[in-house]
């Protein structure tokens, strides 16, 4: 009797190659026929074929049904029911996308530079400049007409051999990506291997090869396989058609026995322009010279775009008539921040992007001061910032990005994508490399966190109704004790190269602590008996289960540290599945009850003498930083690109004010109140004086727009404005009302805006006089810019303006102010003497 499972697809990106591969892997072992029906769209797929599943065009929210028909339909039904209900929602995740507003107007200073430009959609952020390189695409149908083949030749056998070689090439690329720790590349290559190995791919090629021309067969198979994707309402699914293009072009190249076109060779800084670019074509480019890409067809989730982001290469798409625009151009600027492509930039455009570059360098330079320092608050309270890593090769990069240690080395990657568990020796080599890279810094290595929600193919893990609350992590260690002993032995052996901190996941009761402690002792005794040397090692646990809070005092003699797994602890404390959109509002670590519980755990740990750390989303969140400092955390562990910025944020905080905030937050009633209180706290942290030496600049701008841009950029660099472009616009809005030159070679542009964080007086000493008022040709050599927050109700704006206007009437003051040899300190002192009493 036929059985079925009905479900609503929860995956944001729909059922594309990765989740389709999960379904295929789960269904293939069963003999019965298993079909996926997309009830919302009226499509049907073979659940044992990745391409068939992708072709069903299952988008988020679509109503679906799995149908089982055959001899073993009952066990198949039970296995897939457990998968759909317990794991399916977590087999994919939303892809990172650019947050730029592609409809935003260009900055005033750029528009005034009169660039020759076209607009485009930003899919990878950044700015690049280079000569245009136009890349044409291969048309397989035209290629089929130009290559002669015997009508009755073995086209199917030719394609089969080429496909076998293609799969081998992809497998080799996967091995290389693993060795290099290239996660984005690895994920895409695995998806390509699934497609190349798919039965539907093979069947389509075989069907069309009957005509005798293997290239034509590949072209027709490509069209057939892409058709349902291109018809999809989901942009993500439409973009998967390019992966078919990529694989079919590579397959055709293998059949022909040579590249289908001359490879693109970059010999100088270049902007690549193409209708489309496949992932393999992108990977073949010399990234040293690739400064940007313009694509006619690509979206946020294109695999090529994802790769470009990982390499930091800006990408624009949907640029109208781009081929005609770049024709005969000598140079292009691809602006992946404003969303425009500029050809042959003039002097003023060059100035704009030079100032953009200087702003980026200045912001980076300010953070560089925190790259090698230790994390501590403004009043000297220590809080170390560690990095999360998933593969050993990430360790060196993490330390280069300012990590004070490794707070979470997830070892699951060592055990995944294999036919069996890694050997003790293989693990030892990886752990040793990380310890040696740390050069004495703390390294916390989490033992295998695997189970029903993250199965390994070589373990016989049971199917579970709710795997997140089931047989996982430390709970399955006794059954697989030999494998866990191998990992612990490898960790203990690595300790001879530096201290190893062994962290056990998902601990819920004292019996588990005692068992794992005894196992570590036994492994060390075995190694000693074998004559192997071990060094210093410590034992810790992850606190992810609320019950762990109540074992800390008892476990203090057996463990040295704990790390809060904020993601799991939040969902278990709030009793909500973080993958369930219907209860998504409950999954937030800033609920006042959870913060109070976290503070209770921290107090218990500190009282028991246990070192305290935290990882997960909360550790990366700026909002949480003052709360974690107040609770007494010793370290937080986050992704390495965020470390330097968080260390800079930490340096603004004072321990006493953070403790006061924590008390206030715990007394609040709602999530919104907590977030509002914390946001208010951050706004009050920095009260810079309205006059400061950092606001005095030597200005090399060649026009008024350049002066205003340099001064507003400087506000953003020093945190006095969130967005320089918004302040710049407010200044120009004021300029449109009346001229701000006061005569005597001085201009006082000004604005009152919500984009201004702190009232500021900026001063620019110009290298050469510039025209300020085009109408009368009036020039200025000194600019004093007033930027006042819209929250200021004290009349500061007009008070300063009127005082300056009166004072500038005096020649002695003007001469002193306009002296280009006047240093920053003297400039500030001169203005303070005139204005301070007025603006205090």
TrEMBL record:
UniProt entry keywords in alphabetical sequence: Cytoplasm, Kinase, Magnesium, Metal-binding, Phosphoprotein, Phosphotransferase system, Pyruvate, Sugar transport, Transferase, Transport
SUPFAM superfamilies: Enzyme I of the PEP:sugar phosphotransferase system HPr-binding (sub)domain, HPr-like, Phoshotransferase/anion transport protein, Phosphoenolpyruvate/pyruvate domain, Phosphohistidine domain
An example Gene Ontology molecular-function term: phosphoenolpyruvate-protein phosphotransferase activity
Keyword Magnesium attributed: yes
Cofactor: Mg(2+)
Pfam families: PEP-utilisers_N, PEP-utilizers, PEP-utilizers_C, PTS-HPr, PTS_EIIA_2
Subcellular location: Cytoplasm
InterPro entries on file: HPr-like (IPR000032), HPr-like_sf (IPR035895), PEP-util_enz_mobile_dom (IPR008279), PEP-utilizing_PTS_enzyme (IPR050499), PEP_util_C (IPR000121), Phosphohistidine_dom_sf (IPR036637), PTrfase/Anion_transptr (IPR016152), PTS_EI-like (IPR006318)
Domain HPr, residue spans: 1-94
Record-annotated PTS EIIA type-2 domain positions: 688-834
GO cellular component term, pick one: membrane
Stored NCBIfam families: fruA, PTS_I_fam
Family designation: Belongs to the PEP-utilizing enzyme family.
Protein name (record): Putative phosphoenolpyruvate-protein phosphotransferase
């Amino acid at each position: 009797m036929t059985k079925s499972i009905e479900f609503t697809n929860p995956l944001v990106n729909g059922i594309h190659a990765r989740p389709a591969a999960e379904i295929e892997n789960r269904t293939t072992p069963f003999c019965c026929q298993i079909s996926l029906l997309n009830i919302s769209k009226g499509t049907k797929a073979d659940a044992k074929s990745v391409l068939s599943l992708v072709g069903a065009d299952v988008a988020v929210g679509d109503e679906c049904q799995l149908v089982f028909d055959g001899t073993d339909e009952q066990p198949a039904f039970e296995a897939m029911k457990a998968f759909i209900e317990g794991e399916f929602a977590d087999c994919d995740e939303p892809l990172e996308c650019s947050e730029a507003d592609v409809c935003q107007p260009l900055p005033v200073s750029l528009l005034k530079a009169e660039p020759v430009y076209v607009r485009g959609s930003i899919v990878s952020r950044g700015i690049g400049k280079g000569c245009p390189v136009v890349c044409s695409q291969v048309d397989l149908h035209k290629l089929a007409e130009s290559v002669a083949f015997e009508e009755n030749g073995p086209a199917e056998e030719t394609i089969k051999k080429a496909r076998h070689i293609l799969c081998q090439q992809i497998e080799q690329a996967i091995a290389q990506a693993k060795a290099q720790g290239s996660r984005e590349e690895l994920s895409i290559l695995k998806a390509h291997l699934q497609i190349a190995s798919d039965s539907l791919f093979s069947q389509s090629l075989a069907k069309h090869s009957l005509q005798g021309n293997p290239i034509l067969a590949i072209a027709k198979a490509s069209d057939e396989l892409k058709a349902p994707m291109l018809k999809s309402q989901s942009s993500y699914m439409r973009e998967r058609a390019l992966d078919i293009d990529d694989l079919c072009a590579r397959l055709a190249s293998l059949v022909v026995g040579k590249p289908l076109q001359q490879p693109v060779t970059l010999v100088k800084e270049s902007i690549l322009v193409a209708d489309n670019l496949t992932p393999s074509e992108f990977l073949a480019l010399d990234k040293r010279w690739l400064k940007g890409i313009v694509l006619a067809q690509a979206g946020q989730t294109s695999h090529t775009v994802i790769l470009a982001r990982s390499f930091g290469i800006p990408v624009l798409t949907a640029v109208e008539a781009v081929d005609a625009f770049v024709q005969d151009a000598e140079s292009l600027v691809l602006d992946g921040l404003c969303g425009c492509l500029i050809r042959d930039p003039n002097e003023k455009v060059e100035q704009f992007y030079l100032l953009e570059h200087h702003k980026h360098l200045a912001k980076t330079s300010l953070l560089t001061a925190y790259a090698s320092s230790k994390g501590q608050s403004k009043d000297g309270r220590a809080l170390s910032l560690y990095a999360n890593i998933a593969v050993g090769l990430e360790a060196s990069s993490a330390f280069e990005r300012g990590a004070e240690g490794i707070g979470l080395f997830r070892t699951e990657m060592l055990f995944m994508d294999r036919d069996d568990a890694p050997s003790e020796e293989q693990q030892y080599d990886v752990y040793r490399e990380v310890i040696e890279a740390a050069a004495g810094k703390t390294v916390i290595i989490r033992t295998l966190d695997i189970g029903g929600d993250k199965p390994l193919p070589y373990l016989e893990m049971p199917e579970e109704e709710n795997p997140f609350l089931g047989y996982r992590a430390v709970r399955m260690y006794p059954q697989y004790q030999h494998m866990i002993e191998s990992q612990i032995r490898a960790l203990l052996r690595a300790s001879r190269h530096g201290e190893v901190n062994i962290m056990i996941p998902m601990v819920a009761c004292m019996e588990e602590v005692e068992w794992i402690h005894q196992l570590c002792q036994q492994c060390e005794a075995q190694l000693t008996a074998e004559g192997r040397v071990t060094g210093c090692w410590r034992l810790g646990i992850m606190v992810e289960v609320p019950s762990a809070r109540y074992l800390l005092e008892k476990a203090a003699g057996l463990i040295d540290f704990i790390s809060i797994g904020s993601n799991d602890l939040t969902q278990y404390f709030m009793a909500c599945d973080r993958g369930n959109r219907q209860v998504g509002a409950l999954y937030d670590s800033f609920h006042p009850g959870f913060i109070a519980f976290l503070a209770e755990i921290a107090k218990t740990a500190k009282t028991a003498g246990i070192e305290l750390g935290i990882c997960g989303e909360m550790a990366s969140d700026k909002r949480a930083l003052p709360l974690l400092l107040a609770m007494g955390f010793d370290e937080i562990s986050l992704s390495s690109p965020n470390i330097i910025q968080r260390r800079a944020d930490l340096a603004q905080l004072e321990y006493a004010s953070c403790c006061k905030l924590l008390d206030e937050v715990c007394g609040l009633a709602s999530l919104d109140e907590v977030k509002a209180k914390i946001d208010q706290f951050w706004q009050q942290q920095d009260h810079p004086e309205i006059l400061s030496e950092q606001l005095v600049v030597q200005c090399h701008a060649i026009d008024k727009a350049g002066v205003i841009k340099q001064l507003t950029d400087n506000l953003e660099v020093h945190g006095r404005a969130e967005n320089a472009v918004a302040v710049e616009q407010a200044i120009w809005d004021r300029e449109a009302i009346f001229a701000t030159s006061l005569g005597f070679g001085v201009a006082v542009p000004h604005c009152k805006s919500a984009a201004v964080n702190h009232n500021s007086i900026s001063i620019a000493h110009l290298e050469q006089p510039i025209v300020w008022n085009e109408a009368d040709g009036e020039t200025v050599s000194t600019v004093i810019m007033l930027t006042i927050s819209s929250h200021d109700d004290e009349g500061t704006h007009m008070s300063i303006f009127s005082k300056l206007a009166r004072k500038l009437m005096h020649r002695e003051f003007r001469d002193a102010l306009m002296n280009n040899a006047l240093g920053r300190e003297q400039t500030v002192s001169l203005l303070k003497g005139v204005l301070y009493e007025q603006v205090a």
